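2024-03-11 09:14:02 INFO worker-7 job=invfold-0412 stage=load source=structure_tokens
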């Protein structure tokens, strides 16, 4: 059963606010390479086929993946690892890799959800969580977006079966996500 917007936002805050980031794992399709596919695009963030786990210092794990709780594509948050959701995935521990290393050991101080909407002909408008913003206690921002990257145009577009991870406010502005989204 679909949660209300307020329930989704409150659940997200309860799972993350005040928690200290301990470990980050990415989940991708098992491509025919031993290299992480998320590093193949010129996109300055990270693009994931499935999503990621954020493990907190208290041992709790949040799985973040695109899902269809509200509409076909949106940001889904689980109170468990994605290893229970996606069986055929390559898993990369990125805890001490680019971008994340400076956030490990920091507390999440705020969460924000940015809703978008879609409507099929003859049906009611459907709201869904397009972007989730995490603010850390040092002011760092991370955005998780159900978005696809266009190499030719260097843009993101929503309603996708990928999770884009964007680091910082400047990147959010450039890619028009979160508070900078066109329909936000």
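2024-03-11 09:14:09 INFO worker-7 stage=emit residues=184
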């Amino acid at each position: 059963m679909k949660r209300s917007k307020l329930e989704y936002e409150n659940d997200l805050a309860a799972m993350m606010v005040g928690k200290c980031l301990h470990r980050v794992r990415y989940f991708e399709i098992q491509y025919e390479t031993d290299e992480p596919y998320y590093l193949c695009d010129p996109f300055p963030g990270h693009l994931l086929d499935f999503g990621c786990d954020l493990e907190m210092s208290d041992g709790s794990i949040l799985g973040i993946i695109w899902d269809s709780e509200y509409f076909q594509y949106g940001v889904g948050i689980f109170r468990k690892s994605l290893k229970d959701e996606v069986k055929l995935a390559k898993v990369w521990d990125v805890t001490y890799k680019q971008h994340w290393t400076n956030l490990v050991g920091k507390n999440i101080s705020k969460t924000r959800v940015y809703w978008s909407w879609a409507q099929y002909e003859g049906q009611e408008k459907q709201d869904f969580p397009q972007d989730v913003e995490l603010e850390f206690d040092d002011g760092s921002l991370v955005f998780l977006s159900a978005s696809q990257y266009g190499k030719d145009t260097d843009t993101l577009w929503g309603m996708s079966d990928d999770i884009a991870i964007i680091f910082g406010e400047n990147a959010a502005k450039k890619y028009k996500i979160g508070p900078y989204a066109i329909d936000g």
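2024-03-11 09:14:09 INFO worker-7 stage=report msg="Helices lie at 5-16, 169-175."
2024-03-11 09:14:10 INFO worker-7 job finished
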